Amino acid sequence: MEAAGGILLLAATLAALVWANSPWAENYHAIWHTTFTLGVGHYVLSWSRHLWVNDGLMAIFFSW
């Protein structure tokens, strides 16, 4: 069961690679450039999903 997370991550990576290089690649890229907004009161962040992963999640990952 310890390897289940790694196997799931590998399967998701392979699926993304196949999808990004398929005839439906435009849909894949459209999802990454869709705006996602998160806010509380006057504090609002409105970034594309690409920026959320690159700037937000990577900063959290490398700070631990």
UniProtKB/TrEMBL annotation:
The keyword Cell membrane applies. It is found in: Cell inner membrane. It is a multi-pass membrane protein. Its main location: membrane. One of its GO terms (cellular component) is plasma membrane. It holds the Pfam family Na_H_antiport_1. GO terms for molecular function: sodium:proton antiporter activity. Keywords: Cell membrane, Membrane, Transmembrane, Transmembrane helix. The keyword Cell membrane applies. Signal peptide: none annotated. One of its GO terms (biological process) is regulation of pH. This is Na+/H+ antiporter NhaA type. It comes from Acidisarcina polymorpha.
